[in-house]
């Protein structure tokens, strides 16, 4: 079995971002620093996140790291993390929490294909898409 997971890179804010995502989604967060693995000779990098992983009750797995001083940080562009499904209350809750201090680029609203759709960039610069499937037609 293989999995495909978003792996987010930050410039010194990975711990803060992952703790925020744990507040949003719930779940178990593990954080390892460069110092705890002896992954740096630069003491300034010792407390930076080498690897963080959030496993949520919904089965999401989100990973992240900080860029150490020995590497160039490249801001994330050209992708979004997408949340989709039919659990409207949960999706709306995620939307509201992710949008706090972020930038809503398309408000969560009716989509031409049915259901609801919205786009935002959270306070850490990560782009999110939220798509809520339309309710089934009554029989």
Automatic annotation (TrEMBL):
Residues 11-128 form the Glyoxalase/fosfomycin resistance/dioxygenase domain. Gene3D superfamilies: 2,3-Dihydroxybiphenyl 1,2-Dioxygenase, domain 1. CDD domains: PhnB_like. PANTHER family: PROTEIN YJDN, PROTEIN YJDN-RELATED. This is VOC family protein.
